[in-house]
Amino acid sequence: MSELVRRPDDDSNTHCTPQQYEEMYRRSVEEPDAFWAEQAQRIDWIKMPTKIADWSFDPVDIKWFADGELNICHNAVDRHVEAGRGGDVALIFEPDDPAGDVRRITYAELQRETARMANALKKLGVAKGDRVTIYMPMVPEGAMAMLACARIGAVHSVIFGGFSPEAIAGRIEDCASDWVVTADEGLRGGKPIPLKANVDAALDKVSAKGVLVLRHTGGEVAMHEGRDHWYHEFAADLSEECPCEPMKAEDPLFILYTSGSTGKPKGVLHTTGGYAVWTETTFRYVFDYRPGEIYWCTADIGWVTGHSYIVYGPLLNGATALMFEGVPNWPDASRFWQVCDKHRVNIFYTAPTAIRALMREGKGPVEKHNLSTLRLLGSVGEPINPEAWRWYHDTVGGGRIPIVDTWWQTETGGVMITTLPHAHDMKPGSAGKPFFGIRPQLVDSEGEVLEGASEGNLCITHSWPGQARTVYGDHERFVQTYFSTYRGKYFTGDGCRRDADGYYWITGRVDDVINVSGHRMGTAEVESALVLHGKVSEAAVVGYPHDIKGQGIYCYVTLNSGIEPSAELEDELRKWVRKEIGPIATPDHLHFTPALPKTRSGKIMRRILRKIAENDYGALGDTSTLADPGVAEDLIEGRRNR
Ligand code: WT7
Fold it and tell me: In a mutational test of the pocket of ligand 1, which residue from 377, 506, 549 has the highest number of ligand atoms less than 8 Å from its CB?
């Protein structure tokens, strides 16, 4: 039996009461055109759309607001200034160093700085439709770079600062991006991150015409004559005015690379109008944002959470969003709470992995700080276990405020399943109910639709405005990945249970994707990195339950003949994977084995490898199809001895 936690009593300021949710949800699915035309009214359109939903999942062709024209930067920034709110704070910057300088950037300032950066991009040669790679620390200029691209109609491709030069090069090449915006270094937990040096190493492999470099730490970096420009010098004389380019609703806004079960990361493409309406609407209702509140999402702008809920969603709502450069556990485990206290944060949105790590430190670090301004807590990135939910609710929230457990994906653009703070009671561990317009469906492995309380694979049957439109440069891959498993439906890759109250419980990925500290990783990517190493012959990678990270990375490795396993080699391979992909892909376990369990046709039996990694030997299931059953025995032996 799951526990039911009552929503706080009705608040007269809420955007959505239980009755309103029912009525709005009904309308959103029965009359989607009318519903979304109405939500779209909160956006400033240069040309008001007359076509609203215009999509098909078979064949796959998705459009929303197609004849509308707008500029999302105008909507996120200029519009608020024009409405007399230029003095409101848009972004608060809290630096890595707790004693460092806080910056408060008003909407008026954001407009000037974004326009100046847009002019810098133009001076560099960036034109409408060009792809601009952004590899930045968590500083306001990262958000400004995204907005500057949107202002002039360039397509941003943000790469998380934790990715390696190889990963940067792959992404630059994939979308043929000629331009890069970066900084000298980032700073996390007191340690510099060599951003510019990583860009340089990437640009040894692929070329770029121009690189803008923000001076942030002042650390020394190499500058390539003719290609690299210090932003402060390059933009010093540029105007703080730059017109917003009128964009068609379906013009591309950004590409964001994400991992799948096969192949290289995919460049998920989002377009302008639908994404604007979706992030504006979801932010408004999910966080129930009220004017003047301080909102803090701890994600990085390199992930979709940062795109939708640090930059676009909050700014489209004229909110004040905090940007934090640092990490939860430096200088100590009270940093998040110290920052909440210092900035009087009202809405706090973080990931289960951070909650679990901080939960280990006990109540002490939380109780040192005054968290009385908190009104709402959010969770995102992976299922939150009920124990962590309880701790978050009771210790951080003082048992008095709601939690929104928001399920969504890079491909969905914004929140899809969640409770709304004053519309729904909560069930710890369940994301809750579908957001407006979302029609989830559970299907079994044959594609049979499951009704009522049931468990199966989570599909979405109807498009929503924030849905990704394609994989950049490879529409066929988009169709194959998301619409071919269950023809005519969007398949999320997640398993899910629906209970008798219609609450959704995400059970995790059902494909070869693992979720490590809320970071999505294709096991195939780690495998390709391992086999690139000269001493490795074969590798199979699976996830296993990890107390803090949710899932850890378990690698089975067979070595080339004549190579002996050793602690040194283990270390070498760990470093190798970090170099190939980035620190987030660092293997937790390397298990050397002379052979992998395979079927007679040569297919690796991952199910068995997963069970062994989980230390669950009783449930290996049918091993009779193995070409050599002895391999599994040896692996179990090897696992026991670890
Ligand atoms: C995958 C998407 C959504 C932005 C961050 C991750 C898992 C995400 C939840 C949640 C259970 C969740 C799913 C999903 N996931 N949020 N609240 N409860 N699982 O975006 O990197 O595209 O990963 O994260 O497995 O498919 P992403």
Answer: 506
Please choose, from the candidates 386, 326, 405, the residue with its C-alpha nearest in 3D space to the C-alpha of residue 137: 326
Around ligand 1, the residues with Cβ closer than 6 Å are 258, 304-305, 379-383, 405-410, 431, 492-494, 506, 508-509, 515, 520
- Return the residue whose CA atom lies nearest to atom 14 of ligand 1: 409
Structure tokens at 327: 């990490």
Contact indicator for 233, 199 with CB cutoff of 8 Å: no
For the four alpha carbons of 375, 380, 386 and 387, in that order, the dihedral sign comes to negative
> What is the ipTM, given to two decimal places?
0.99
- Which residue type occupies 145? A
Angle at 443 between CA 441 and CA 448, to 5 degrees: 120
Structure tokens at 200: 């340089």
pTM reported for the whole predicted model? 0.95
Which atom of ligand 1 has the smallest separation from the CA of 417? 17
Tokens of residue 411, six digits:
């491909």
Please tell me what DSSP assigns to residue 360: T
Q: Which of 308, 392, 399 is nearest to 348 (CA)?
A: 392
Is 439 known as a binding-site position?
Answer: no
Q: Tell me the per-residue pLDDT of 443-484, one tens digit each, with 9 for 90 and over.
A: 999 999 999 999 999 999 999 999 999 999 999 999 999 999
